[in-house]
Write a structure and sequence with these properties.
The protein has 58 residues and is mainly α. The chain has two helices and no strands. Helix 1 packs antiparallel against helix 2 (33-56). The longest helix has 24 residues, at 33-56. It is elongated.
Length: 58
Amino acid sequence: MRRLVDIALIGGFLLVDVFFFHDVFKPGESTSAAQWMTGFLSIGVFAICGRSLLTSSR
């Protein structure tokens, strides 16, 4: 069950990041503070869930 939650969190945050940051490099587009905070939060989620997935597979 833990693996399923980790995979769902990683997939969900990847989807949110794609929607938030798909236009970050377009000229004239700006990224809000909430989008940057979500991006930094997703890095933490990826690290924690990835570590959990790697240790549970051993």
